[in-house]
Each structure stands twice: as structure tokens, then as C-alpha cells.
């Protein structure tokens, strides 16, 4: 299996990658040499996305070997993830707008048979564009694509094939093991010129030939030669960042582990003692269409790995209760604690549960990690402004560790 769904696999991958995370990464990270040869990047994204391993652990491991200036590029890439998460937390309506756009796209497929045929060909990797077909199939068969391939693929989807952008983002979310509401939606918007107004990304034949090491050599006629930004409303105003709740000591407590944070140790180490724990995955809600079993099975198995690792600290463990409210009621808990789930399907399920729990006077307590509280409020403008805060944020990580 390319991505074993365990923390052990994530840690092994990290320790193998750390020696390459310095100047090597900066020089070679843009080369996509194909499946089985993604050696210049970490391939940690399925693990980071579910926090089977955390951003903080990865940054600290890299900075245990290199200075921040030597590993600057890699650390910045990890902070792109943090930035996108924070950006969406400050403007969650963008996620709802995206969901509406996916539904509108699917409706068009019902009535426009030409579009339906082109969409089906794109998803099956049966267009006239060889590289695009290859990436569509690599994604479906492995659950992963190199960052550069994601950029080329999305650009060709939008500007050459002229398919609805949201359906492309949905295709990614159905198949990527690291499928993430923030990184995926906002990256597609960025390619299409909706994120940074007017700035688009054009996939160029020479760039593809160079960075695939000649594996693909599309001709100039095959790909669009310009990338006019898609129309979109202005970005919504920046909202308030989320804050962390606090649990009450000595109350009977149930813990919920969602797919968004499979490292509950940060709460257990602060004295949380659940009498019962349930894990749940909302991976099947990432799309209105069927999400690839590769994705749902990865997420389920990773949750099992998590509960097995923490075992005796979690109390009675239940896997994926069909009815979360009934499960909470059965535990007799007077408070339910969970790691904060950012904007996306897991948060939507928790919001529903919170409303139901209110009728029973049971609070749902969402615990935000200190590093997210520190970073997300800076995601107000573009990444270049956010990037200036990275040395400070990294310094605080070390401080946070000293304090914990
Ligand atoms: C159209 C498009 C869609 C994308 N969808 C997703 C997605 O659903 N989920 C996802 O995790 N990433 C997404 N990305 C970002 C990026 O492509 C992947 O995070 C990266 O390719 C993962 O491979 P890696 O772990 O080998 O990355 P590395 O280069 O080894 O980077 C280390 C980690 O940093 C983070 N990271 C790196 N580059 C980015 C980036 N540009 N944006 C955000 N985080 C980054 C990831 O967590 C990654 O695991 C998308 C990018 C594009 C262009």
C-alpha cells in the first residue's frame, strides 16, 4: 500500500524525508517524476490532513536538523496549509458557496449532454491530452498527486477543457487521500483567478516538459494559451477567528475524535479523562457524489489506528456510532469534548450534534490547538503577508513546547 493509514508509517516517512527537507527540497520540489518517484517531496499530506502527525511535529523535526533559513522553503509550504485553513476560518461562507457551485455544476450535467460527455472523459482520463489523462488516472489509482501536477491539471480543466471549476475541485475531493476543504477549494479558486482577483495560473507546455523531466511534451496547440480569470464576487469581509472552549474538570466526559484531528494527546496530556470515546469520519460528506472507497477506507483505518494508540486513556471506545446523540446519551456524559474541527464536513456534523445536545443541556466543547489560535488570525490578506509571521510563529512553537 502506498499510504499505510498509520502514525508509524507517517513517522517513518518523516524521518526518511528530514535529510531532504533543506536546500534539496527547495531545488527539486517542483519536479514531478511520476508515481513511485515522488522522492523530492515528503508525501506526508494524507497524514497531515488528518493530523495523524501534526504540522508542528513536522516543522519541529525539520528544524531539529536544519536552520529555518536552510529549510525555509519546506517550512513555508507547511505554513501554506496553515494559511489556507486560517483563511477559510475567517471566511467560512466560501465553503458554502463552493458547495452551491458543485450542486449547480452537477445540475448542468443532468441537462447538457455535451458537457456531461466532456466531464466523464476528463474524470476517466480519456481526453485528447496525454498528460492530463495520466494525472486523472494517477489520482484515481493512488489517491495522491504531486503539487505541480495538481496545478497543471486544474489549469487545464478550467482553461483548456473549460469545465466548471467546482466540479474539478469535487473530483479532487472524491479521490485525494489528503482532500481538504481549505487547501483544495482555495487552491482551485487561486488557479481560476477567483482567490487573488485577476491572478490565474496557466499550464505551459515548456513548464510541463521541464518539470516532468520530459515524460510529457504537450504541443502548444493542445493547451490553452491564455487564462482569463473566471468571474466571481468579491471575497467576503474577514470574520472573527474561532476561539477555544474549556472543559470542566471532574465532570463525566465523552470524547469525540473526528477525521480532522487524530492526535488527541494534546488534550489528554492536559488532564482530560474521558469515560467514553467515539471516533467518526465525515469523509463520505466531502462530495455529493460517491467518495472513493480508497479515501473513506484510509480515513476509517487511520481513526482505528488512533484509538488503538491511545487505547486505555480513552475509556470505552465506540467506532462510528450511527447516531452520535444516542451514543452521548448512553455514555451518561455531562460534557462532550472534541478537538476543534475547522470548516468542512466534520464541523457540519458537530454543529448538528451541538444543536441536538442543547436540548439535553450537554455542552459540546471544542478545543483549539494553541498553534492554530496563534496562526489563523494572520490569514487576513495574501500569503506573502502571512509569510512574514512565520519566524515568529515557529519561535512560539518552541515556546509552546517549553510551556507544556
Ligand atoms: C488544485 C490544488 C488542489 C490541492 N488540494 C489539496 C488538498 O485537498 N489537500 C492538501 O493537503 N493539499 C492540497 N493541495 C496543496 C498541495 O498540492 C499538497 O498539499 C501537496 O502536493 C502534498 O504533497 P506533499 O505532502 O508531498 O507536499 P510537500 O511538498 O512535501 O509539503 C509538505 C506539506 O506542506 C503542505 N503543503 C505543501 N504545499 C502546499 C500548498 N500549496 N497548499 C497547502 N498546503 C501545502 C501539505 O500539508 C504537505 O503535506 C492542492 C494544490 C492544488 C494546486
Helix content: 40-55%
Span between termini: 36 Å
Assembly annotation: single chain
Question: What does the main sheet amount to?
Answer: 5 strands, parallel
Count of alpha and pi helical runs? 19
Note the overall shape. globular
Given helix and strand content, the structural type is mainly alpha
Which percent band covers the strand fraction?
A: 5-15%
Spatially, the strands of the biggest sheet line up as: 3-2-1-4-5
CATH superfamily of the largest domain: DNA Cyclobutane Dipyrimidine Photolyase, subunit A, domain 3
Order of helices and strands: HHHHHHHHHHHHEHEHEHEHEHHH
Return Rg in Å.
21 Å
Determine the CATH topology of the largest domain.
DNA Cyclobutane Dipyrimidine Photolyase, subunit A, domain 3
Q: Which ions and ligands are bound to the chains? A: flavin-adenine dinucleotide
Q: What is the number of E strands?
A: 5
Structural description of this entry:
This protein has 404 residues and is mostly helical. The chain folds into three domains: 7-90 and 374-403, Serine Threonine Protein Phosphatase 5, Tetratricopeptide repeat (Alpha Horseshoe); 93-211, DNA Cyclobutane Dipyrimidine Photolyase, subunit A, domain 3; 253-367, Rossmann fold, CATH 3.40.50. It has 19 helices and five strands. Strands 3-2-1-4-5 form a five-stranded parallel beta sheet, sandwiched between helices. Helix 4 (55-63) runs antiparallel to helix 5 (72-90). The radius of gyration is 21 Å and the shape is globular. The two termini are 36 Å apart. The model has no long low-confidence stretch (mean pLDDT 96). The structure holds flavin-adenine dinucleotide. Flavin-adenine dinucleotide binds at residues 29, 41-45, 48-49, 77-78, 80-81, 84, 146-147, 150-151, 154, 172, 176, 178-180, 183-184, 187-188, 191.
Amino acid at each position: 500500500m502506498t499510504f499505510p493509514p498509520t502514525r508509524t508509517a507517517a513517522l517513518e516517512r518523516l524521518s526518511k524525508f528530514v535529510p531532504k527537507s533543506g536546500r534539496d527540497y527547495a531545488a527539486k520540489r517542483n519536479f514531478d517524476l511520476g508515481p513511485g518517484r515522488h522522492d523530492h517531496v515528503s508525501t506526508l499530506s494524507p497524514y497531515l490532513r488528518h493530523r495523524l502527525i501534526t504540522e508542528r511535529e513536522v516543522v519541529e523535526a525539520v528544524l531539529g536538523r536544519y536552520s529555518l533559513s536552510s529549510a525555509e522553503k519546506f517550512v513555508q509550504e507547511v505554513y501554506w496549509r496553515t494559511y489556507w485553513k486560517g483563511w477559510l476560518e475567517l471566511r467560512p461562507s466560501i465553503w458554502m458557496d463552493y458547495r452551491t457551485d458543485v450542486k449547480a455544476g452537477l445540475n448542468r450535467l443532468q441537462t447538457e449532454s455535451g458537457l456531461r460527455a466532456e466531464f466523464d472523459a476528463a474524470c476517466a482520463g480519456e481526453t485528447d491530452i496525454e498528460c492530463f489523462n495520466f494525472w486523472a488516472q494517477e489520482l484515481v489509482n493512488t489517491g495522491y498527486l504531486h503539487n505541480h501536477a495538481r496545478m497543471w491539471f486544474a489549469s487545464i480543466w478550467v482553461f483548456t477543457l473549460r469545465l466548471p471549476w467546482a466540479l474539478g475541485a469535487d473530483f479532487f475531493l472524491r479521490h485525494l487521500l489528503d482532500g481538504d476543504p481549505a487547501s483544495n477549494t482555495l487552491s482551485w479558486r487561486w488557479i481560476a483567478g477567483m482567490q487573488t482577483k485577476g491572478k490565474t495560473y496557466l499550464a505551459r507546455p515548456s513548464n510541463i516538459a521541464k518539470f516532468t523531466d520530459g515524460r510529457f511534451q504537450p504541443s502548444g496547440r493542445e493547451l490553452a494559451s491564455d487564462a482569463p480569470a473566471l468571474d466571481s464576487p468579491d471575497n467576503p469581509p474577514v470574520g472573527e477567528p474561532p476561539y477555544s472552549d474549556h472543559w470542566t474538570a471532574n465532570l463525566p466526559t465523552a470524547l469525540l475524535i473526528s477525521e480532522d484531528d487524530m492526535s488527541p494527546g494534546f488534550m489528554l496530556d492536559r488532564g482530560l479523562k474521558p469515560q467514553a470515546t467515539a471516533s467518526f469520519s465525515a469523509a463520505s460528506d466531502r462530495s455529493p457524489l460517491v467518495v472513493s472507497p480508497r479515501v473513506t477506507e484510509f480515513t476509517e483505518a487511520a481513526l482505528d489506528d488512533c484509538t488503538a494508540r491511545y487505547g486505555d486513556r480513552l475509556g470505552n471506545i465506540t467506532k462510528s456510532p450511527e447516531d452520535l446523540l444516542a451514543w452521548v446519551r448512553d455514555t451518561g456524559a455531562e460534557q462532550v469534548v472534541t478537538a476543534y474541527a475547522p470548516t468542512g464536513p466534520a464541523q457540519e456534523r458537530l454543529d448538528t450534534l451541538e444543536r441536538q445536545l442543547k436540548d439535553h443541556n450537554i455542552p459540546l466543547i471544542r478545543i483549539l490547538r494553541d498553534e492554530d489560535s496563534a496562526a489563523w488570525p494572520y490569514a487576513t490578506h495574501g500569503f506573502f503577508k502571512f509569510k512574514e509571521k512565520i519566524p515568529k510563529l515557529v519561535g512560539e512553537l518552541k515556546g509552546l513546547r517549553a510551556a507544556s
